Amino acid sequence: MCVCHLSMLPPASSMAHGTLNLRLTSCSCSSLPASSSSGQTTPTTTLSSAVQRGAGGLLLQSCMPFLGVHIYMAICTLPQWHMYWSHEYQQPFVASVFPRWRFEQLLRYFHVAPPPPAAADADPLSRVRPLIQSLQHSFARHYLPGRDIALDEAIAAFKGRSPIKQYIPSKPHKWGYKMYCLASDDYVLHFEVYEGKEDHPSAHGATYDTVMRMVAGFEHKQHVLYIDSYFTSPDLLAALKQRGILCCGSVRRNRRGMPPITKEQVRRLGKGEWIKRQQGDTSLAVWKDQKDVWILYNHTSPLNAATLDRWDDSGHKVSIGCPQAVHDYFFKARSVDVSNQLHYSYPIGRKSKKAWSRLAWWLIDISIVNAFKLWSIGKDHPKQLEFREQLMHALVKLFGSNREAVQVSRGADASVALVRDHFPQRAEHDRRCVECSQRGTGPHRSSFICARCNVHLCIDPCFHLHHK
Q: Which helix (H) or strand (E) holds 92?
């Protein structure tokens, strides 16, 4: 069984030219049906056996255009995938790359990891874990983050059945796989898939452990970490500072060890006013906006102030004062959210009953978003749509236009192409008819093959059914 790893490997000059190489370490669609010795169709074949049959080049060439077609489908969306080949809604770009039957096979047998053994069925990520590990290793190696990094949760939208599916009411897509993402300048540096409650967390708690795992490798590099109230606590800020990472984050007022601020003091605040307290190196600021904003930080002096543009009751934009930490949090804690917005602008993938499929497409699409951020370096007003169009055409160009697919997709011209290119001719040896084997009508042997398809077929009715 073959595994597909999509990793970003820019050459030395890619940062200057804004280009990106996508490496295919092995074929994700390599398990297309192949005739076995018994004449039956097997859903899984090794790459070596495919090469022995002379199909290795075709299988490897199909994977990248398969991804390119999905990028196109995310830009030009239709409710059902077969509509891209229909007479009413036909999309020439898609039809020129694959005939419908070929795309259906690729979609059916698409995978990113070998099927797990029976003993590994309890692992809900066994089907995508190699891809997760490959991207975790790849992302941080190809981007040098700035001073500010942000940690937040993200959701890979999914409403099917999965033991690790989560519900987060504050997210636009509330159901799905929960991710912990570390990002800088809208580029995802590292991520973890939430797999359920930890069995043996440390004395500081599972949330504390998650933050420490996510920032591993970024210690003592003068970074400032921005986090939300789910993670923030005074103990966490102290531990991060020992590792050379300053922090700023919204915080819940009932966290243990907080500098004292009473409810009465907060209630007296007017809009645009704030109070602050300091405890050692850690400062707490409570700023009054539409709601109370609690910020715990140690990256800047509590004396520093700034302004934010807000809307007044009459609908006019006004500038109001705020602590510098509030200003920083508003503008620098959003990298993960922006990355997810870019993802959901053109999400690739199709609906599937397979629980792992939605997660696999999310991982591939986040790779594309990261590639877009690399491509954007040095460009004025880069457009994600423009990048996806260029990537789509580059991936399809690796395979080239399929003349047969164009002809078959043109409806009335298909009969002309069929007569010219597909006709029966006598073979040297008798073999089992592939159409009879696939339909299960019996192991019938035939001495005729299709000149174009190079497969054995009965003259009647299998030749007609195979090319229908």
A: helix 92-97
Picking from 423, 424, 426, 442, the residue whose alpha carbon sits closest to that of residue 434 is 442
DSSP sequence for 282-330: EEEEEEESSSEEEEEE-SS-TT-EEEEEEE-TTS-EEEEEEEHHHHHHH
Token pair for 310: 């807000």
* Per-residue model confidence as pLDDT tens digits over 401-451: 554 444 444 443 444 445 556 778 888 888 888 888 877 777 788 888 888
Gyration radius of the chain over CA positions: 28
Helix and strand numbers (H, E) in the chain are: 17, 17
User: Is the pLDDT assigned to residue 114 strictly greater than 70?
Assistant: yes
CA distance 465 to 368: 40
d(CA 60, CA 195): 32
Q: Write the CB contacts of 294 (distance below 8 Å, at least 6 apart in sequence).
A: 229, 250, 251, 252, 253, 284, 285, 286
Render pLDDT for 297-314 as a digit per residue (tens, 0 to 9).
999 999 999 999 888 778
Q: In this structure, what token pair is assigned to residue 317?
A: 């934009």
pLDDT at residue number 120: 55
| 58: CB partners within 8 A, 6+ apart | none
**Token pair of 354 as six digits:** 């397979």
What is residue 418's predicted lDDT score, i.e. its pLDDT? 52
* Alpha helix (H) residue ranges in 40-85: 47-52, 56-75
Please write the tens of the pLDDT for every residue from 30-53.
434 433 333 333 322 222 322 233
Can you tell me which residue has the tokens 């880069």?
382
Q: pTM higher than 0.85 for the full model?
A: no
Amino acid at 68: G
Maximum Cα–Cα distance across the chain: 95
Residue 27: pLDDT above 80?
Answer: no
Q: Averaged over 387-406, what is the pLDDT?
A: 74
Q: CA 103 to CA 408: how far, in whole Å? A: 13
Q: Which residues pair with 280 in a beta bridge?
A: none
Whether a cis peptide bond, with omega within 30° of 0, leads into 115 is no
* 14 Rama class: left (phi>0) / alpha (psi -120 to 50) / beta: alpha
Q: How far is CA 149 from CA 57, 164, 177, 188, 246, in A?
A: 43, 27, 22, 10, 10
